[in-house]
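note to self: dont lose this again. the chain is below, predicted strucutre after it. 551 aa total, dont forget to put it in the shared folder this time
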Amino acid sequence: KKDVKDVRQRSRDWVICWRSTERRTAVMQALDAIFKLAANEENFQQFGNDVIQCFYDISSVTHDPVRSRALMYVEQLAQRWRHSVLARGWRGDLVKPPATTILDTIVGLYCMERVGVASNNLKRDLTATLSRVNGTNIQDNYSVIDYFGWDPRAGPPPQGGIIDPASGIQISRYRAMCTSLTYAFYIDSVGLDIGCSYPTILQHLKSIRPYQGPRKFRIWEDYVDQCYLATHVVFTLSNWGELSLESHLLPHEYLFIREHLPIAVRQNDVHLVGEYLECLRVFAVSDADPLVKLGIAFLLNTQSESTHRWDDHLDAYTSYHATMVAAQGLLAHNARGFGPGLITAVPILQAHLLADGTTMQDSLSPDERVTTAVQAAIQAQRQAREKKNSKAESPDLNENNRKRPKISETPVDFATLSTLKNQLDEATRQSDWTATKDVLVSLDNVAVDLELLKSTNLGKDVSLLKKVADTQVATLAKALVRKWKGLLKENGLSGESGNSMVASPPRPISSSSSPKSTTPPITTSNITTSNMKEDDGANALVPPPFPVAVP
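---
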């Protein structure tokens, strides 16, 4: 009886999650599509071990019926991959196999051990080869640079001049850091040694932080590489989503992902949206979060109806990667424990938190998602925004006498407020009062800037909800309008009729704060890398779509 009850409870997660039927169907179709891709021998030789890990990762963080389907595919592909590797060999008999071959074999060994299809002979051969090619008795032995393209023991990744050992092309410091962290995770997990460990690389994360917005980069691909670095820090510390992490352990990554998910949606970047969603799941962010709903809705709307894949017009690996991360982003996620998975990373994280002016806290309540480090980062952003606004105002005004709203909630930017408005419009259009209440609660929990409130016409939309049939929605709307009118009065503006919260047509975003600016509206047709000015990240309009770089 206990086993039956446990099975029912596990399956219940796929019943109660937001848009459950659509998500479950999309994930099951995606798993079938990935397995179909892997049936092609050329695809299987290229990324078969990655497919096996994908199925195992999905099976470890979700429940039936998705878990059963993923495990079925794991069992079929793991044995096939093992026999394939043993049949063709991995060139371990060579005096000096290529460094990239050694790394790829270590990744394969990790996948085999994780799914329970280990090969002691392969691990023994790998250990002997590493001892031979990294030993002091060979004059031309491999260095760490041969594996990673840079030497983490000597310092952080340089700004330029890093050559990727696999492709032979120059890569950004963000991609080099991301690739090195990923390979080092595999190496440490299987208990091998190439002369540089995961903590040695992780310690240089402080030289990368704080993460920057897209307008800080001259090359769009560098910004994308930075995004992948942020997600892979979370992935490697959580055993690829298997373990849950507290947001205060990685405040920079947590805030960056929340701030930049809307950018990935606007760029139609399935790869980043899927990875961002999985990271938010690792941080225990629920379906009720508006950003999670935004990402899920985007993924459901972009899946191909014919192939059930994402980016199916691109090459096999790119489409596989998009489908993999999208499926993981749509999961009804359940972590198996708490991270970090690599215990050797804990001292490095402690040092980073101490450098940020905070300490690790072990006594957090389950509901405390944004802790001291995150709150400090939010406060710093608020202070920077207020300082920037004060410079734009008349210097004759006395700062101490200027009336400002008393804000105690989390500040909200234009992108997030626009997202909430779109969700509110969609929910009210479909008379989905549950979703409407969720959006109203989210609006009540953020500090809305009056200019943003006017520019989005949100005040009028909420005011109309005061007369709907659902009493809870009407009550929430009345309380929200009353609150916003209070802010208007505190700033010396009239709020009697509510019209002061309704804007004329929104003005185009420009780099000038002057109301007399004649700058034309910025569109994707007139943005170039030469006219993009520096801005503090995701709050500004992002550049037009570029080819997506896939790690």
